[in-house]
Amino acid sequence: MIFKNIFVYPKYPENLHKLYELAYNLWWTWNYEGINLFYRIDTPLFREVNHNPIKFLMSLPKEKLDSLSKDKGFLFELGKVWEKFEGYMKEVSSFRDENGSQRSLGKKDIAAYFLMEFGIHESVPIYAGGMGILSGDFLKSASDLGLPVIGVGLLYKYGYFTQKINIDGRQGEVFLKFDNYLMPVRELRNEHGGPAYIKVKILNEALRIKLWHMEIGRSRLILLDTDIDDNPPHLRNITDELYVADREKRIQQELVLGLGGIKALDSMNIAPTIYHLNEGHSAFLVMARLQKLMKEQGFSFSESRAIIRASTLFTTHTQVIEGNEHFGLELIKKYLESEVKNLGLSFDEFARLGFVKGKEGLFWLPALAIRFSRFVNAVSRQHRDVSRKMWDTIFPERPIVEVPIDYVTNGVHISWISERFSYILNRYLGPDYIRHGEKREIWGKVLDIPDGEIWEAHGKNKRILVSFVRTKIARDLAERKYSQARGKITGLLNPDYLTIVFARRFANYKRPTLILRDEERLKRILTNPKRPAQLIFAGKAHPADQSGKDMIKEIIDFARKHELEDRVIFLENYDMNMARQLIWGADVWLNTPIGDMEASGTSGMKAAMNGVLNLSALEGWWREGYNGKNGWAITAGQFYSHPELQEEAEISQVYTLLEEEIAELYYSRNEAGLPERWVMMMKESIYLSHEFNMNRAVADYVKKFYLPLKEESRKIQDDNYKLLREALSKEKEVLNHWDRVKITRSFTNTDKRSHIIEGETVEVECQVQLGDASPELFKAELFHLDGQNEKYKILPMELVESREGTGKYKCSFVMEGYGKQNLNVRLKPADAIVEDLHPELVKWAD
């Protein structure tokens, strides 16, 4: 028996219309007046539905709605929140106004932000971890800054898995189906008022995709959904599960994101100025754009690639090559060969765009994205250096320091600041700290906040955390009918104890169980009668990661073995709501990744915003944020080369810090009962927010990448693509002559001297064999690397003579550095577009 599915919306009193409109715009999730409005209606129910505003309102009985419509106090509060919301939505702000730049992004200069996961709020669980939550923070800050950013992602039927820990301490995965109509997402409508759909082809089969959207303040998120009755079962389930392990299903998801994402924007008449790809998962949008440019607009492949590069930014978030998305060539050929041939390209030509030297036989999506992006960035300074080494083979003949990968260190949105600390910051800093996230003079006022207010706010957050943990564990036990253990709940955790939290994805490189290395020593630290401590762990292991699951069991077994279950807690099903409680209520945020394996890390930033002190390896953001006054750095391993010795040194340092410094500082109180030195460190930690907030990060993206991309796109399109067409006519000549041109001789006026002094003028000359090539096709330049600080300069060399197929080039400069200096001359295409399209065209003097 088949029934037609329809969804009927409730009829509510007219004067509650604003409440329902607020529920569908997630602006309220970073405004405590909005959050408290929902809590006021029915606190237990709001918590029960995990703060899902739509499910919450749909669950209210008619009598409750009628009562609210007559409650003058509630209507007054609703009016105040609505007035604030309307003011925010109408606010005139721009990047230029906030930063004093003469350049700006206009309303039509849309940046399309592509990603597989978005962590906007726990009520829409289409995120797995830090990268998804980062993307949600990005859209929130773009809204705050008035920037025209549109997210593009997938709407998953089950989202990421729900974690369940069994009686033996083993992780299980449950996939709960979510009802889109009971989440703060809405169907997109077509011009006729009906639901909006697009179509793409997967292996020549038509796939119908439904479009949904979310409102995040002034930002929007477009979500693609294949769970449509019209689709056959093997295609309908494409958007079932986030980061599905099945490789064919994964490539199908990424094709839907890339090909479908571009079609979705087209169907909405949105023509982005900037395409921002996050991770390799979104790289197939390159294919969609090639199809549009080549098949619909008649551009050649080279022209299309230049146009795409001029408008594209690729952000890599991964620290190791193996963690980047890649597929076997047979799978790529199966899904893309016909699409490639329709463009007039051979499959081999296209496949080379995804190759990485030394990793033959695989197609790397980040490599494809890098080759079609004008700018590439990592997410911390350290991650930039690692990424340059990871992808240097895409840029042969380039020194590592010149591999064109920049960085913007991640930040976190101000919504991660607890209500208590938000009140304090508003009181002492004023509301400007929200808009001017990077201004030291504003954030510097944190250091003058009275110690008592900081400590009191933190104490309240800790008590709320303890209550949250007890309530959650009681609920989990009741669900499993473990009645014998329920009586111990009231003894779990103590809000007065030093509280250490480790909360993140459980993976080998994050080393969540490093602190268990010496069990007896850790037990002594935790049970010290004068300075007791407690540990809270939370995090999911990927369903296919058995070692991650084993580490969860190891923690639970440790607590049971040593009878420490009251102070060593593992909380199951880590999500955004739990993350808030942990970062608000912890004293110490523990982070112990393996060296060079943490791209950035943002949980520690969120904790720091709330005065929590980081105890972390000097990895990712902490390498930039640590100053010796705002937490502790785990550095002992850097003196050893062997991994086991490194680990031994690092965990020994952690234990020693906990025993001799951290606990001592925490429990050392003045006459008023305040740990003065600890509170001073808390203030220094909060002060870090001026560097590691998302408004600063988004502003960096605009300055470094979005505005230059806007300018490059404009230049390349001017006069009916005149500059581009001229460049590509030169490209043919450059490629025709490249094998025959070379630098035959280079020298300086200091070559025969053994003693060179800083401040001297160095003259450089080289001769280039040009043959019958025009000298205008190529340029010679001097590359000068200061070996002392790894900084480099590129100096153009002037063509001073050209005859009989030989060009003579010269330049001079003042030697500013001292110590080891590296000099060499090189030959490259003279045209900027040709040079950009062919990073491999570099010839150095022998």
Automatic annotation (TrEMBL):
Cofactor section: pyridoxal 5'-phosphate
Superkingdom of this protein's organism: Bacteria
UniProt-recorded Gene Ontology molecular function terms: glycogen phosphorylase activity; pyridoxal phosphate binding
Residues where N6-(pyridoxal phosphate)lysine is found: 606
InterPro entries linked to this entry: Agluc_phsphrylas, Glyco_trans_35, Glycogen/Maltodextrin_Phosph, Glycogen_phosphorylase_DUF3417, Pyridoxal_P_attach_site
Location of the DUF3417 domain: 13-123
Annotated protein name in UniProt: glycogen phosphorylase
Originating organism: candidate division NPL-UPA2 bacterium Unc8
